[in-house]
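Support request from a user on the community tier.

User writes: "When I paste my C-alpha coordinates into the form, the page sometimes reloads and wipes my input. The last time it worked, I copied everything first. Here is what I submitted, just in case something in the input itself triggers the reload:"
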Protein backbone atom coordinates (compact mmCIF):
# COMPACT_ATOMS: atom_id res chain seq x y z
CA UNK A 1 0.00 0.00 0.00
CA UNK A 2 1.30 3.44 -0.94
CA UNK A 3 2.03 5.84 1.91
CA UNK A 4 -0.19 8.84 2.47
CA UNK A 5 0.80 11.81 0.29
CA UNK A 6 3.04 14.33 2.00
CA UNK A 7 0.90 17.10 3.49
CA UNK A 8 3.30 19.07 5.71
CA UNK A 9 3.14 22.66 4.32
CA UNK A 10 6.87 23.30 4.90
CA UNK A 11 7.89 20.14 3.07
CA UNK A 12 5.47 20.84 0.21
CA UNK A 13 6.84 24.37 -0.07
CA UNK A 14 10.40 23.00 -0.18
CA UNK A 15 9.37 20.49 -2.86
CA UNK A 16 7.86 23.26 -4.99
CA UNK A 17 10.94 25.45 -4.63
CA UNK A 18 13.18 22.53 -5.61
CA UNK A 19 10.93 21.73 -8.59
CA UNK A 20 11.05 25.33 -9.83
CA UNK A 21 14.86 25.42 -9.52
CA UNK A 22 15.36 22.03 -11.21
CA UNK A 23 12.93 22.88 -14.01
CA UNK A 24 14.62 26.22 -14.63
CA UNK A 25 18.03 24.55 -14.83
CA UNK A 26 16.64 21.88 -17.18
CA UNK A 27 14.99 24.48 -19.40
CA UNK A 28 18.09 26.65 -19.61
CA UNK A 29 20.38 23.72 -20.38
CA UNK A 30 18.24 21.81 -22.86
CA UNK A 31 15.93 24.27 -24.61
CA UNK A 32 16.77 26.84 -27.28
CA UNK A 33 15.28 29.83 -25.47
CA UNK A 34 16.35 33.36 -26.36
CA UNK A 35 17.85 35.14 -23.35
CA UNK A 36 17.51 32.15 -21.01
CA UNK A 37 18.78 34.24 -18.08
CA UNK A 38 15.47 36.12 -18.15
CA UNK A 39 13.42 32.96 -17.56
CA UNK A 40 11.70 32.68 -14.16
CA UNK A 41 9.34 30.13 -12.68
CA UNK A 42 7.17 31.17 -9.75
CA UNK A 43 3.86 30.38 -8.15
CA UNK A 44 0.79 32.06 -9.59
CA UNK A 45 0.29 35.27 -7.66
CA UNK A 46 -1.70 38.50 -8.14
CA UNK A 47 0.99 39.87 -10.49
CA UNK A 48 0.65 36.82 -12.74
CA UNK A 49 -3.14 37.03 -12.71
CA UNK A 50 -2.98 40.73 -13.53
CA UNK A 51 -0.61 40.09 -16.43
CA UNK A 52 -2.80 37.23 -17.66
CA UNK A 53 -5.74 39.62 -17.86
CA UNK A 54 -3.86 41.58 -20.55
CA UNK A 55 -3.94 38.56 -22.89
CA UNK A 56 -6.67 40.13 -25.02
CA UNK A 57 -6.39 37.54 -27.78
CA UNK A 58 -6.85 34.60 -25.45
CA UNK A 59 -9.55 32.31 -26.78
CA UNK A 60 -9.97 30.54 -23.42
CA UNK A 61 -10.63 31.75 -19.90
CA UNK A 62 -9.71 29.11 -17.34
CA UNK A 63 -10.51 31.36 -14.39
CA UNK A 64 -6.93 31.94 -13.24
CA UNK A 65 -8.15 34.60 -10.79
CA UNK A 66 -9.50 31.69 -8.70
CA UNK A 67 -6.03 30.17 -8.12
CA UNK A 68 -5.40 31.86 -4.72
CA UNK A 69 -8.63 30.28 -3.41
CA UNK A 70 -7.80 26.90 -4.96
CA UNK A 71 -4.35 26.92 -3.35
CA UNK A 72 -5.80 27.48 0.12
CA UNK A 73 -8.09 24.45 -0.31
CA UNK A 74 -5.51 22.24 -2.04
CA UNK A 75 -2.02 22.69 -0.54
CA UNK A 76 -0.59 19.77 -2.56
CA UNK A 77 -1.41 21.52 -5.84
CA UNK A 78 1.36 22.92 -8.00
CA UNK A 79 0.69 26.27 -9.64
CA UNK A 80 3.17 27.64 -12.14
CA UNK A 81 3.65 31.11 -13.58
CA UNK A 82 6.30 31.04 -16.30
CA UNK A 83 7.91 34.43 -16.89
CA UNK A 84 10.44 35.77 -19.37
CA UNK A 85 11.60 39.11 -18.05
CA UNK A 86 8.47 41.10 -17.28
CA UNK A 87 6.21 39.10 -19.61
CA UNK A 88 4.09 36.18 -18.45
CA UNK A 89 4.63 33.33 -20.89
CA UNK A 90 2.28 30.74 -19.43
CA UNK A 91 0.33 29.33 -16.51
CA UNK A 92 -0.26 25.82 -15.24
CA UNK A 93 -2.27 24.32 -12.38
CA UNK A 94 -1.94 20.65 -11.40
CA UNK A 95 -3.03 18.68 -8.36
CA UNK A 96 -3.09 15.10 -7.12
CA UNK A 97 -6.45 15.91 -5.53
CA UNK A 98 -6.94 12.87 -3.29
CA UNK A 99 -5.17 10.42 -5.58
CA UNK A 100 -2.17 8.40 -4.43
CA UNK A 101 -1.23 7.60 -8.02
CA UNK A 102 -2.03 10.58 -10.26
CA UNK A 103 -1.03 14.20 -10.63
CA UNK A 104 -3.79 15.83 -12.67
CA UNK A 105 -2.91 18.68 -15.03
CA UNK A 106 -6.11 20.66 -14.74
CA UNK A 107 -5.12 23.80 -16.66
CA UNK A 108 -2.22 24.77 -18.90
CA UNK A 109 -2.26 27.93 -20.99
CA UNK A 110 0.34 29.88 -22.94
CA UNK A 111 0.42 33.55 -23.70
CA UNK A 112 -1.07 33.97 -27.20
CA UNK A 113 1.77 36.36 -28.16
CA UNK A 114 3.87 34.14 -30.43
CA UNK A 115 6.78 36.62 -30.43
CA UNK A 116 7.65 35.86 -26.79
CA UNK A 117 10.84 33.84 -26.20
CA UNK A 118 8.73 31.28 -24.28
CA UNK A 119 6.55 30.54 -27.35
CA UNK A 120 6.87 26.86 -28.18
CA UNK A 121 8.35 26.02 -24.77
CA UNK A 122 5.51 26.62 -22.27
CA UNK A 123 4.02 23.10 -22.34
CA UNK A 124 7.42 21.41 -22.10
CA UNK A 125 8.60 23.59 -19.20
CA UNK A 126 5.36 23.37 -17.22
CA UNK A 127 4.96 19.63 -17.80
CA UNK A 128 8.58 19.10 -16.74
CA UNK A 129 7.82 20.86 -13.45
CA UNK A 130 4.67 18.78 -12.94
CA UNK A 131 6.61 15.56 -13.63
CA UNK A 132 9.37 16.51 -11.17
CA UNK A 133 6.75 17.32 -8.52
CA UNK A 134 4.90 14.05 -9.18
CA UNK A 135 8.13 12.13 -8.62
CA UNK A 136 8.73 13.93 -5.31
CA UNK A 137 5.20 13.00 -4.23
CA UNK A 138 5.90 9.38 -5.24
CA UNK A 139 3.09 9.27 -7.79
CA UNK A 140 2.89 6.96 -10.83
CA UNK A 141 1.16 9.13 -13.42
CA UNK A 142 0.81 12.69 -14.65
CA UNK A 143 -2.64 12.83 -16.26
CA UNK A 144 -4.07 15.61 -18.41
CA UNK A 145 -7.64 16.09 -17.33
CA UNK A 146 -9.99 16.78 -20.24
CA UNK A 147 -7.45 18.10 -22.77
CA UNK A 148 -8.74 20.37 -25.49
CA UNK A 149 -8.88 18.28 -28.68
CA UNK A 150 -6.68 20.78 -30.54
CA UNK A 151 -4.03 20.58 -27.77
CA UNK A 152 -3.89 16.80 -27.51
CA UNK A 153 -1.00 16.51 -29.99
CA UNK A 154 1.11 18.80 -27.79
CA UNK A 155 0.82 16.37 -24.88
CA UNK A 156 1.46 13.37 -27.10
CA UNK A 157 4.64 15.06 -28.38
CA UNK A 158 5.75 15.09 -24.73
CA UNK A 159 5.23 11.30 -24.33
CA UNK A 160 1.70 11.35 -22.96
CA UNK A 161 -0.23 8.27 -24.10
CA UNK A 162 -3.83 7.24 -23.75
CA UNK A 163 -3.79 4.66 -20.93
CA UNK A 164 -7.00 2.65 -20.44
CA UNK A 165 -8.55 3.41 -17.06
CA UNK A 166 -6.16 6.33 -16.49
CA UNK A 167 -6.54 8.80 -19.37
CA UNK A 168 -3.99 10.82 -21.32
CA UNK A 169 -1.03 10.03 -19.10
CA UNK A 170 2.72 10.20 -18.65
CA UNK A 171 4.20 7.25 -16.76
CA UNK A 172 6.56 8.62 -14.10
CA UNK A 173 8.13 5.18 -13.67
CA UNK A 174 9.11 4.89 -17.36
CA UNK A 175 12.66 5.73 -18.51
CA UNK A 176 12.33 8.11 -21.45
CA UNK A 177 16.05 8.81 -21.94
CA UNK A 178 16.44 6.42 -24.91
CA UNK A 179 13.22 7.66 -26.51
CA UNK A 180 14.42 11.27 -26.14
CA UNK A 181 17.79 10.43 -27.75
CA UNK A 182 16.04 8.75 -30.70
CA UNK A 183 13.76 11.75 -31.16
CA UNK A 184 16.71 14.14 -31.08
CA UNK A 185 18.57 12.07 -33.68
CA UNK A 186 15.50 12.10 -35.91
CA UNK A 187 15.25 15.91 -35.62
CA UNK A 188 18.91 16.24 -36.67
CA UNK A 189 18.44 14.03 -39.75
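"...and here is what came back when it finally went through:"
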Amino acid sequence: MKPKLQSDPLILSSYKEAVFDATLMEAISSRDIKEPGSLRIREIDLEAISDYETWLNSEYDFGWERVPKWKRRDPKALDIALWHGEKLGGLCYASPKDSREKMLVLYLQRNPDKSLPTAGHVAWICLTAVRFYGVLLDLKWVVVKDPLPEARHVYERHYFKNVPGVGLAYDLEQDYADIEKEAENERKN
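Agent notes: The reload is a front-end session timeout and is unrelated to the input. The chain is about 35% helix and 20% strand. Helices lie at 9-30, 46-52, 67-73, 122-136, 152-157, 177-188. Escalated to web team.
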